[in-house]
Design goal:
The protein has 105 residues and is mainly alpha-helical. It contains five helices and no strands. The N and C termini lie far apart (128 Å).
Length: 105
């Protein structure tokens, strides 16, 4: 009596893999496989995108530091005293009087 109750209400693995049940549910199985593949593809695509974003952020940080150092260097080189020292080597002297406008009468 006990074995019949177990058969009627219990779950058997052998019943799960019967040919008729598989054929009857093939569309559902294909859908589940497609969704699993889609999930795996989406995860890999997101991971690749995340790596690309991290790489771009590192590159941006490096370019930002390069910009700051070049800006600082330009500011130092464009100071009047630095420019005056640089042109002294060429024989050009710094004028003492301010520039004036030439007017046509």
């Amino acid at each position: 009596m006990r074995s019949k109750e177990k058969k009627a209400g219990g779950f058997r693995l052998k019943d799960l893999f019967q040919y008729e049940r598989i054929v009857r549910n093939i569309s559902m199985l294909l859908l589940l496989m497609f969704l699993a593949l889609l999930y795996i593809w989406n995860r890999n695509a997101a991971y690749r995108e995340m790596l690309e974003v991290e790489k771009t952020q590192k590159e941006l940080k490096e370019l930002n530091w390069q910009f700051i150092s070049l800006k600082k260097e330009l500011n130092n080189k464009s100071m009047q005293t630095h420019v005056a020292r640089s042109v002294e080597k060429l024989g050009i002297e710094n004028r003492a009087e301010p520039p004036y406008k030439i007017r046509k009468n």
